[in-house]
Specification:
By secondary structure, the protein is an alpha+beta fold. Helices cover 44% and strands 22% of the residues. Among the domains are: 93 residues, Alpha-Beta Plaits; 71 residues, Alpha-Beta Plaits. A hairpin with a 5-residue loop joins strand 1 and strand 2. Helix 2 packs across helix 4.
């Protein structure tokens, strides 16, 4: 994944790994309900739902909450009709921003997104303005501690992964969305349990940010992710280790 955005890694470094549990649960419940509505309520036959449930469990969401969210999605409980929408725009330093949302009110969502981007000197763009810079991939992250790197790399490629590369904290395995579930299952069966597993948008190129642009972009990403309707934020920026240390100090 050389040259790809390390936004997920940056979030971990800056300690922004979702400290607001209530807000996380809101987003996860929407995703579980939507996944169940689109693909059915059986996790065994619905990879998207299965992944959403795994994320909910990792966030320590109670089992009852998960079950209620599934029932909402399958029409067994009161539910809101959430629509899946993508918004695109630009941030500091020409950074491309790709935002995935689940919303029951597009006008509200657009207004909130435009407000955040404008506040920090960015702007909301037309559909397709940055989408071509991103590709959807499945990414599995494995912690370095106690990891047999050679065996993991071999198992990942044998399982059909597109790439497996060392990162600052461990190994990142990349797979196509179609192969993601099979690759994950094969690696878990081989004894390799990922610390995170997600379908995400990977940029083809990145913009290195420094100084005020780096600080502002981190604020933009945090502000966007803090919106209830926003499920995920993808951006093609990178920040050096030295710059991250300066910002954190």
């Amino acid at each position: 994944m050389s040259g790809h955005s390390k936004w997920a890694t940056i979030k971990r470094k800056k300690g922004a790994v979702d400290a607001k549990r209530g807000k996380i649960f809101t987003k996860l419940i929407r995703e579980i309900a939507t996944a169940a509505r689109v693909g059915g309520g059986d996790p065994g036959a619905n990879p998207r739902l299965r992944l959403a449930i795994e994320k909910a469990r990792a966030a320590n969401m109670p089992k009852d909450n998960i079950e209620r969210a599934i029932k909402k999605g399958t029409g067994e409980g009161a539910t809101e009709a959430y629509e899946e929408v993508v918004y695109e725009g630009y941030g500091p330093g020409g950074t491309a921003i790709y935002v995935e949302v689940l919303t029951d009110n597009r006008n509200r969502t657009v207004g909130e997104l435009r407000h955040v981007l404008t506040k920090y000197g960015g702007n909301l763009g037309a559909s397709g303005c940055v989408a071509y810079m991103f590709s959807k991939k499945g990414v599995l992250t494995f912690d370095r501690a106690g990891l047999d790197l050679d065996k993991l790399l071999e198992a990942a490629l044998d399982a059909g992964a597109e790439d497996a590369e060392e990162s600052e904290t461990g190994v990142e395995v990349t797979a196509s969305p179609a192969d993601f579930d099979a690759v994950k299952s094969a690696l878990v069966a081989a004894g390799f349990e990922p610390s995170s597993a997600e379908l995400t948008m990977i940029p083809s190129t990145t913009v290195r940010l420094e100084g005020k642009d780096a600080e502002t972009m981190l604020r933009v990403a945090d502000a966007l992710e803090d919106l209830d309707d926003v499920q995920s934020v993808h951006a093609n920026f990178d920040i050096s280790e030295e710059e991250m240390a300066r910002i954190a100090s």
